[in-house]
Amino acid sequence: MVPIPLTDHIRRRTFWAVTLILLVINFWAFFLELSLGPRLNRFIFEYGLIPARYSAPSLFARPARLPVAPIFVSMFLHGGWLHLLGNMLFLFVFGRSIEDRFGHFLFLLLYLISGVAAALVQIVVTPSSHVPTIGASGAIAGVLGAYFICYPGARITTLIPLFVFFWTVQVPAILLLGYWFFIQFIAGFQMLSIQTATTGGVAWWAHIGGFTCGALLAFIFPTQRRGSVVETV
Predict the structure, then answer these.
(1) What confidence tens digit (pLDDT) does each residue in 59-106 have?
(2) CATH of 4-230, one of 1.20.1540.10, 3.40.462.20, 1.10.3720.10, 1.10.1040.10
(3) 4-18: per-residue pLDDT in tens?
(4) SS3 annotation, the chain
């Protein structure tokens, strides 16, 4: 059973311009991927985050050759419609209120820093992996981490699927996001025992790194919109 967040219940005072821009960029990047046809695999291997490229001894000898672009470009690439739509749903549900809380610039900064932190954690945990890591999940996990700190009691309308039955419930953010983080943590440790240089799958540790970074930044960044109203359960 995977709970699907649909919306939160926070009255925002500013328009979520940066969240909208990020949504548009992610969709635009995905359509660009679709247009590449047979060149897509080469593009993914060039701009996806491949941990082994950052752990090779030669990089320390010649740091100027460190591939920086994939760390950022990979945040906007996705492996399919389900991957894209799932990430964008989480960004839409939780990003708007965090943008209202910290302001447009700090929200964008939190998003990008969390994405970089997610990439670095993935590199450290899987240093020999030659599998490209792509997706906005790490950066969005940072938004979830910040939401967990800022609005733990906020109500999240959540879709609960069970076989062919669906119903919606109001779930406190602290429970929904705490459950999400717990799943990432357990899955991450399970993957450590079977990780090889060629296995693919979900970058669980990138999610953990992004979430933790976003939670820490929520304590550091000054609040721009203290007037945001939370409807608690």
Answers:
(1) 655 555 678 999 999 999 999 999 999 999 999 999 999 999 999 999
(2) 1.20.1540.10
(3) 999 999 999 999 999
(4) CCCEEEEECEECCCCCHHHHHHHHHHHHHHHHHHHCHHHHHHHHHHHCECCHHHHCHHHHHCHHHCCCHHHHHHHHCCCCHHHHHHHHHHHHHHHHHHHHHHCHHHHHHHHHHHHHHHHHHHHHHCCCCCCCECCCHHHHHHHHHHHHHHCCCEEEEEEEEECCEEEEEEEEHHHHHHHHHHHHHHHHHHHHCCCCCCCCCCCHHHHHHHHHHHHHHHHHCCCCCCCCEECEC
Q: Report the distance separating Cα 195 and Cα 187, nearest Å.
A: 12
In 3D space, the residue among 74, 75, 210 whose CA is nearest the CA of residue 147 turns out to be 210
Worst-scoring range by mean pLDDT, 41-50, 94-103, 157-166, 198-207?
198-207
Question: What are the residues facing 155 on neighbouring strands?
Answer: 172
pTM value is 0.90
On the question of pLDDT at 194 being above 80, the answer is: no
